[in-house]
Each structure stands twice: as structure tokens, then as C-alpha cells.
Hints:
It is a single chain. The chain has 447 residues and is α/β, with parallel strands linked by helices. Helix content is 44%, strand content 16%. The protein folds into 2 domains: 35-288, Rossmann fold (3-Layer(aba) Sandwich), CATH 3.40.50.620; 336-441, Four Helix Bundle (Hemerythrin (Met), subunit A) (Up-down Bundle), CATH 1.20.120.640. The strands form 5 sheets. Strands 7-6-12-13 form a 4-stranded parallel beta sheet, sandwiched between helices. The protein has a 4-stranded antiparallel beta sheet with strand order 8-9-10-11. It is elongated and about 85 Å long.
Amino acid sequence: MALVEGAHAKTYRQFYSPDGEVGTLAKMELEVYNTKTKKKEEFQPLEDRKVKMYVCGPTVYDVPHIGHGRSYVFFDVVRRYLEFSGYKVTLVTNFTDTEESITKRAHELGKEPIELANEMIKVFLKEMDLLGVKRADFYPRVTENITEIIKMGEELIEKGYAYVLNGEVFFDVQKAGGYGLLVDQPIENLVAGGVGESADSSESSKHSKNDFALWKKSKADEPSWNSPWGTGRPGWHIECSAMAAKYLGPSIDIQGGGLDLIFPHHENSSMISQAFSGKPFAKYYIHNGFITIKEKKMSKSLGNFVTLREVLKEYDYQVVRFFLLRRQYRKSLEYSDKEMAEAKTDLKRIQAAIALAVRASSAKSGKICVESEKKLIDELIQAKDKFIEAMDDDFDTEKAINILLDASRCIEEFSKECKRFTSAEAGQQAKAICKQFNDVMGVCRKL
Length: 447
């Protein structure tokens, strides 16, 4: 609906907390940066008030690292904010539980690949729980969706978008057309491949260097499945296409993941999905930036690799979650003792201020201050509006956190003079606003 303020009519929309409580009205519309178009766009889901999200999960050959933490904490906040904004969100996060790196690591440890994968899935879920990441609606695994993957491969061949070569199946990029959608580069500059797409004897016979595997022959020590083309295993990119189609349908609203997934994985899986269904796959592609250490991208090869397990031993999970949200998600995030110490200090201030407001909301005795109370409520309402504006601006958690720090200072000033609110209504209003901040950010224990 439209309300008039002075000479300017502004659009308003209703907000909700995840538990269904109605929030206050706020201005403007949500805009998200779309990797596909390289610009911010107004968020308009395919179905009214419903959002379908597919966030690529890990290849489970080792314990999660802090880069995993950043990605899944960020997309957890995206989901929370969409729910806060009144959307019904369905989230799918897959597990790649069969792949060369899993087989290699399992053999190094003297385990079966599926045994290692099962162990790492349990570790991943446990550590995401510790970080306050809400469970996805579905966690499909590649090994449980082989039938769907083979069926998709068969239909792509029938439609002319894939071909069989020496017992393997390749996607025909030239036939599909439009390759380079996400990276915005000419096809001649691109080379497909990626994790699980190692070269073999069929590579030199492909129709194009960019064609990528949908089904590959398994090596002697790898897990394998029977298919119409012979014994083998799926290629990486078709796995997500098949699982997304099964759980969310042919088209989704958000495809999410780290920057490293833009090409080739999201490029290729998008091509597969569109060729299979004849419909665009994702409306919005959202990708988070990297974790850096001493301004270098974290990687095992550089020896600057930090696991979540190591970080969570040293810092409270709420501090780690808060740290992972302190920078706008598309920026690089520097991990260091200094950054963690600053995160700890800022979070402590926010948590202490919220605790003060909650205590004052239920206090039965102590000094009351009518004017100071009115001023605080006005400041908190303004802070909430600014918080929503920041999150509407491409989920800018960095701005949102600065607004929470400003609101914390307002609560501190109030608490120096006053110990309780004059009315239960005012106290509950202050508490409700603090609760809504936390429903989105998830950085305080439940209020």
C-alpha cells in the first residue's frame, strides 16, 4: 500500500519475524546483485511470496574450513531475512558424496569412500549447527540420486544436447548456445572442466574443448554405477541440475555459492538445466567473496588453510558467526587475530545492550524516565528502519552491523539513567525490535 509523508508518497511493505509475528512497516524494496546481469536488481520471485533457493553444498572429503563457514552463514542470513520479509523459503543444499577427491582421501585414510563421506557430512552438519545455520529443507546426496542423473542424461541425448563418446556422455555446448552467461566472456576464451572433470582419452575427441562430462568412466578404485553407456559415475555439473530439478522444479529464484563456483560449475549446471527443461534455471545468481589471510586467498597450497574446527576451539560460535558477517558479502574478508578481537568486542557490546533492553522490559522496580524512554523507542524504530534499508540493499550485513552498534549506544545511554520502562507496552516494543534484529542476524542466544 502507499502512504503519504509530506509531499512524497512512498511504498511500504509488511515484515514478519520467522515465528510468524507481524513486524513494522518499512520502505523500499529488496535489491540483490545478480552475477548474471552484473548489476543490482529488484527482487521479484517467480511465485508470489515464495522463494526457491539452491545453495551448493560441499564435496565431503575433509572437514569444513572457515570459507565454508562464510558462505553458509551468509546464505543463512539471506534465508532468515527473506523469511523476516514475509517469504516462504524452500532451501536445498546438496552433498557431493562421490568424487575423485573423496576416493583419494579415503584411500589415504584406509577407508571406503562412502564411509568417509558419511563421516564428513556429520561433521559439516554439526559445525553448521554450532554456527547457528538453520537446517536446509532438503540435503540431497549424489549417491542417492543416480537414477535421476542418468534419466536427465538420457533425455539430454534424446534432445540433441549431449552425445556419447567411448562410454562417456558429454554436454554439447555449441548445440545449447549461450555459453558464458555468468562470466560474460566469448566462448573461445573459456575452458570447461573443474572438480571431478579430469582429462582422459575421450577429451581429445570431444566436439568442442568446452564440452564437459555428464557421465564418466570410473577408475578401478572408484565407486561406479551401471548406466546405458556402461559402468561409471556422474560428472560434477549434472549432479546439481538433477537434484535441483527433483526438489525445486525446473526454475528457481536463487542459485547461491562462493565466487569460485561461478565458472565452471554454475555456468555448466545452468546450461544443463535450461537445455533439459527449456526454461531459464535461476533468476538470481548470488556469490559470496573469499576469506583471505594476510591478504592472500585462503588455500591449502599456500599453507594458510584454517578449518572451522580450529576457529571454534578458540572462539565462541557467536563471535565466529558475527565475524563472518562483518563485511559486505561480495567483499573479501580478512581472517586474523586482530579482526577476530574486534568482532568479539563489537558483538559483546551489542549483546550487552540487548540484554539491558530485555531486562528493562520486564523490570518491576527502579527509576523510570518518560522522556528518555520515548527518545529510546524512537531511536530503536529509526534503527530498525535503517537496518531494513541496509538489508534491502543487497543484504548488506556490514551496514546492518554498524546500525546495531549505533542502536546499542542508544540503549547504553538510556540504561545509565533508567532501569525500567514506564509501561509494559513500551518495554515489549523495545524487546520486540531487539528480537527482530536477532531473528535475522542470529548473533545472540534466543531472546
